[in-house]
Design a protein that fits this description.
mainly alpha; 19 helices; 76% helix
């Protein structure tokens, strides 16, 4: 099997699955196999995840691997480039896609058009993997739009209600503005450098006048920051979550907003040398503003999915702050800051994984509660965890993990980010901003514990008296339990994922300046 096919394989599997689903659905009806489409979707996601193992092996032995679509090569041709950071992100995308497809078997069975639902879900994950594998900005933008179009439709999937339509339209408008802003940045780069290939841009940028390039940096952060839900570009997310099916809420917070972070980080660190461009300070400030604003907004929510949406924005703040610390250290301390940058960025990448699993767990768990109680109102959901012990216990583990309680997985990633921020005690900027992050972490932990207390320790309200976890809910409970076990196991034995995240961070740093 050729190396080029290995790179394209997961994307091809997912897009082919999306197309074939339209054939599988009528075949299932003809054969009277009701769940054929569900089994096919799960198989496609499992196969795409398995295909990543071959790419991971190639990256481990060869380092970054590339492929150019014939007949053109850079600076004109479309290219794919896969390094440790790319493959890390692709694993997260496909893993969550697999778990959500399992969850959807029971959760979505009352809806019509499920062949379209699964096709859109596969297209969404294919777009996400394509974004992480893109070796040039044109290719990245094409897959970005594939991801975005699929996510708009999935948010509005329950189209017989007004709320999903309104939320999807708001998401569409804001995301389109963000995409056009990012496209504008790419057009400036093409005008200045004559190429959109990331490796070529990295070698050309140092020869250009720096001032117009800061406009590009601003546009990249603002454009992709909409999908990343960085404050003040976050307004679509709290509306999209309550309106979307719970599996899609898990995808939005677990992986879609991470694609925004990936795009920002990939462009800034791979094209612009952070030692020469001072965008690290901006990322640090965006991180703490995002943390602080979202934490306050989370306290004001009675809708469980809106609260979790603002919590997702908080965690984006941690991740952006971690990457900001890395860029800041390289800008201020040069190569002397490399170890600080590697630690901070490893923590940020580790937190991408932890939040994807933890928040996926919480949204799927919340979906179980809502499915049984018929409400998103936290006051009406009090005590539901006592009626649904597997979901309730798993949900509590997810809350504790995101609160950073040791020895769960969320503790380690937050610890690495904070340690990196406190490395240079004489740097007042880093000490103050890291202290703000610590205060926000304590603040967030308080409302996570408050939420756990209401759901698990309060007497059950009348609305949840008949909630249960029967055999019919197995496909909804199983992914939640699996994710809680992942959180516990990685918390107790974090070394493999730490090593993977460290390699991902160092591969990203190795691309600086070409």
């Amino acid at each position: 099997m050729s190396e080029s096919w290995i790179i394209l394989q997961p994307i091809a599997i997912l897009f082919a699955g999306a197309l074939l689903m339209q054939v599988i659905e009528p075949v299932g009806r003809a054969l009277k196999i009701e769940k054929l489409r569900d089994a096919f979707a799960i198989a496609i996601f499992g196969l795409s995840l398995y295909s990543l193992l071959g790419i991971y092996g190639e990256v481990q032995t060869q380092g970054q691997i590339t492929y150019f679509l014939s007949p053109y090569e850079p600076p004109i041709g479309v290219s794919f480039a896969v390094d440790q950071f790319s493959i890390f992100m692709a694993f997260v995308f496909c893993l969550l896609g697999l778990l959500v497809s399992i969850y959807s078997v029971r959760y979505m069975e009352g809806d019509t058009g499920l062949d379209k639902y699964y096709s859109l879900l596969m297209s969404l994950v294919a777009g996400l993997v394509g974004v992480s594998f893109a070796g040039d900005l044109f290719n990245l933008f094409i897959f970005w739009e594939a991801m975005s179009l699929s996510s708009y439709a999935l948010v509005a999937f329950k189209k017989y209600r007004w709320e999903p339509i309104e939320a999807s339209f708001k998401y569409l408008v804001m995301s389109t503005i963000g995409s056009l802003t990012a496209l504008y940045a790419m057009s400036i780069l093409y005008g200045l450098a004559g190429t959109l290939n990331i490796t070529d841009l990295a070698s050309i940028i140092p020869t250009l006048e720096p001032y117009p390039l800061y406009l590009v940096i601003i546009a990249i952060i603002a454009g992709f920051g909409v999908t990343a839900s960085i404050v003040p570009f976050h307004f679509w997310l709290p509306d999209a979550h309550p309106a979307a099916p719970s599996g899609i809420s898990a995808m939005l917070s677990g992986v879609v907003i991470k694609a925004g972070v990936y795009a920002i980080v990939r462009v800034l660190f791979s094209i612009f040398d952070p030692a020469a461009f001072s965008f690290g300070t901006a990322l640090v400030l965006f991180g703490i503003i995002t943390l602080s604003v979202a934490n306050v907004m989370a306290l004001l929510q009675r809708d469980i999915k809106r609260l979790l949406a603002f919590s997702s924005i908080v965690n984006i703040g941690y991740i952006i702050f971690g990457f900001g610390v890395g860029a800041y250290a390289l800008n201020v301390y040069g190569m002397g800051g490399y170890s600080i940058a590697a630690l901070a960025m490893m923590g940020a990448i580790f937190h991408i994984f932890n939040h994807a699993i933890g928040k996926g767990l919480l949204f799927l768990g919340a979906g179980n509660f809502i499915h049984e109680a018929g409400t998103r109102d936290l006051m009406e959901l009090e005590g539901v965890g006592k009626k649904m012990p597997l979901t309730g216990t798993s949900f509590s583990i997810g809350l504790l993990a995101l609160a950073g309680v040791p020895p769960l997985s969320g503790f380690w990633s937050k610890l690495f980010i904070i340690l990196a921020g406190y490395t240079v005690l004489s740097d007042s900027f880093m000490i103050v901003t890291t202290s703000i992050v610590v205060l926000n972490a304590i603040f967030a932990a308080a409302y996570y514990l408050w939420l756990m207390q209401r759901l698990m320790l309060k007497a059950p309200k009348p609305r949840v008296e008949h909630a249960h976890e029967g055999r019919g809910l197995l496909s909804m409970v199983l992914p939640v339990v699996i994710m809680s076990l992942i959180t516990v196991v990685i918390g107790l034995w974090p070394f493999e994922i730490i090593n993977f995240a460290d390699l991902a961070a160092r591969s990203l740093l190795g691309l600086v300046g070409g």
